[in-house]
Amino acid sequence: MHELNSLLPLSLALTLLATADPAAAARPADQPNVVVILTDDQGWGDLSLNGNRNLHTPNIDQLAEQGAQFERFFVCPVCSPTRAEFLTGRYHPRSGVYSTSAGGERMDLDERTIGDTFAAAGYATAAFGKWHNGMQYPYHPNGRGFAEFYGFCSGHWGDYVSPPLDHNGKIVRGSGFVIDDFTNRALAFMEAHRDDPFFVYLPFNTPHSPMQVPERWWKRFEHKTLTMHNRDPDRENLPHIRAALAMCENIDWNVGRIVAKLDELDLADDTIVIYFCDNGPNGVRWNGDMKGRKGSTDEGGVRSPLLARWPGNIPAGRKVQPISAAIDLLPTLADLAGIPVVSTKPLDGVSLKRLLLETGQDWPDRQIFSHWRGRVSVRTQQHRLDHQGKLFDMARDPGQRRDIAAAHPEVVARLRTAVNAWKTELLPELKEDKRPFPLGHTRYRYTQVPARDGTAHGNIKRSNRFPNCSYFTNWTSTDDTITWPVEVAADGLYDVELHYACPAADVGSEIELRIGSSSLRGTISKPHDVPPRGGEHDRVPRAESYVKDFTTLPLGAIRLQAGQQGMTLKALSMPGKQVMEFRLLLFTRRVE
After folding, report:
1. What is the secondary structure of 368-421 as a DSSP string?
2. 537-589 pLDDT, tens per residue?
3. Nearest to 576 by CA among 539, 529, 544
4. Alpha carbons 26 and 273: distance in angstroms, whole number
5. Going by DSSP bridges, is the β-strand pair 124-130/318-320 parallel, antiparallel, or unpaired?
6. Burial of 265: CB neighbours in 10 Å, binned 0-12, 13-18, 19+
7. Which of 14, 80, 479, 486 is 20 to 30 A (C-alpha) from 88?
8. Which long-range contacts (CB under 8 A, 24 or more apart) does 365-370 make?
9. Distance of alpha carbon 557 from alpha carbon 549, whole angstroms
10. Candidate CATH numbers 3.40.50.150, 3.30.70.600, 3.30.1120.10, 3.30.390.10; the one for domain 368-430
11. Does pLDDT of 19 surpass 60?
């Protein structure tokens, strides 16, 4: 982990390069556009392309028909690590990503991203959807090479229909079903930059729960008889599967819209389209007889489709057999675009350009590692050594049903040595996380500090054990506090806005926000009693928190001094039974 102060200028330098010097932004006429579509919790088996007859995904399937399909492509067992590996070309422990929430999803600020690489080459860069690698600038997408961002930075969201979203740091209201909304933004961006090289990253947040999908797709699946089942059919939750598959068909529709827009803009031949998923399926459903699902380092937890289309360059219908991984996408796309990778650190990934454009003969075997919560497995072209030391011949036994470790001790010894070396080199990177949350920056106006990132003391509880879209409740004493470790990047004056809910019977609490030696007081004088919501759009019961339509209280302006310090929110008085329910603080830097 790395301290914030020493890295802030470096984290911005390459992002600013493209806008600081227009001449440096010039590019060859044959430099392709890039559109990367990443789905959330969609398994390898959730495509009709891969043999699933329970759904139909013609637009995604067509990407493979018109381009290349990688037969064995691997990601991480869960969301934020995969995103970090795609963005950096490096295994996720190297960038300090160890969790999916509360700060553990952040990439260290000395990492350079694929956004930095394409921005430095003069590309217009944008991300629309679920970021999940840090919220506060410069962890925010705008600080990681993406000039335009519209979506949310948490690991999951509590409602998918016109929710509050983040547009370049500012909180705005979404428009309609989020996946459709993100796609609309991407289409408009591509049209606005039709004459410029663009890099569009579309990290969709479905079929991650809560299981919400518009009626048009749900009615096709609500009572559908499923003909293909998981290897453990008794563990299936059929309503959840139907919702997930409906969400996948909605994704397919949006992929079709993207391809159609490229045709409309006459950009299809000038654009590389990439499609992949971030981990195995978020439920027990058909997945090609593979062992494992989301969270597992077995094949079913880490195998993803990878489709790549670039008409006239990538041969249609190409099947790529050598194993590959998310760490390979940054060097591959930079190589295809003919631009340099700007990372100052060595990549773990390799360029797959030769596999895409040529025959790929004599491609060397390699080892790809999968890690989550201390469990490590390693994959070669033929074998997988799982985290328990069991060995499987994946060519003959893709379902990992027969352990052959006893028959091949030399293979086990070689792969165990590789795993131990990988652990020794990488896992020490995941030491105790002492990184504060950034607050304020001279180059950025907004800082959101949500309940997700806070620590509650006393009686205060989270609305749900999964922090990402949670809020704090049960604030029943003036001894209760919420704290955050923060680092103010530069001296400045900030307007502070509190997002809260409070019934009329409990208004009147005086609260204090203290940051270092600075403080600000306010009174919860306006009632705002709203029920939890989000469930009205759920197709099946959820595990995550419901959400509320919180209101805002302007607390006033606070002058902050640069440096690492503690931030505390507390109540000085409480006339009712509770202080409030708390969602977030929004800081807006004043231009002085």
Report:
1. EEEEETTEEEEE-SSEEE-TTS-EEETTT-TT--S--GGG-HHHHHHHHHHHHH
2. 999 999 999 999 999 999 999 999 999 999 999 999 999 999 999 999 999 99
3. 529
4. 22
5. unpaired
6. middle
7. 486
8. 366/322, 366/323, 367/415, 367/418, 368/74, 368/323, 368/324, 368/325, 369/91, 369/419, 369/422, 370/74, 370/76, 370/77, 370/297, 370/301, 370/302
9. 24
10. 3.30.1120.10
11. no
Residue (of 496, 521, 506, 522) closest to 579 by Cα position: 506
Report the C-alpha gap between 557 and 554 in whole angstroms: 9
> With 70 as the cut, is the pLDDT of residue 23 above it?
no
Residue 103 confidence (pLDDT) above 90: no
Lowest mean pLDDT among 46-50, 181-185, 404-408, 464-468: 464-468
Q: Kind of pairing, strands 518-523 and 510-515?
A: antiparallel
Query: Is residue 355 helix, strand or coil?
Result: helix
Q: Where are the domains of the chain?
A: 8-357, 368-430, 437-589
**DSSP string for residues in 260-279:** HHHHHTT-GGGEEEEEEESS
Report the CATH fold assignment for 8-357: Alkaline Phosphatase, subunit A (3.40.720)
The C-alpha atoms of residue 369 and residue 300 are separated, in whole angstroms, by 14
pLDDT digits (tens, 9 = 90+) for 247-256: 999 999 999 9
Say if 8-357 and 368-430 have the same CATH topology. Answer: no
What three-state secondary structure class fits 340?
A: coil
Query: How is domain 437-589 classified at the CATH fold level?
Result: Jelly Rolls (2.60.120)
Beta-bridged to residue 439, according to DSSP, are: 488
Neighbours of 266 (CB within 10 A): 9
Q: Which pair of structure tokens corresponds to residue 451?
A: 């309940």
Instruction: Classify 514 as helix, strand or coil.
Output: strand
Sequence-distant (6+) residues with CB within 8 A of 136 are 437, 438, 439, 447, 448, 449
- Mean pLDDT, to the nearest integer, of 365-385? 97
Nearest-CA neighbor of 153 among 175, 171, 134, 178? 134
Within 10 angstroms of residue 539's Cβ, the number of other Cβ atoms is 22
User: Token pair 């699946």 is at which residue?
Assistant: 221
This model's pTM is above 0.85: yes
Backbone angles phi, psi at 165, to 5 degrees: -130, 175
Q: What percent of the chain has pLDDT over 90?
A: 90
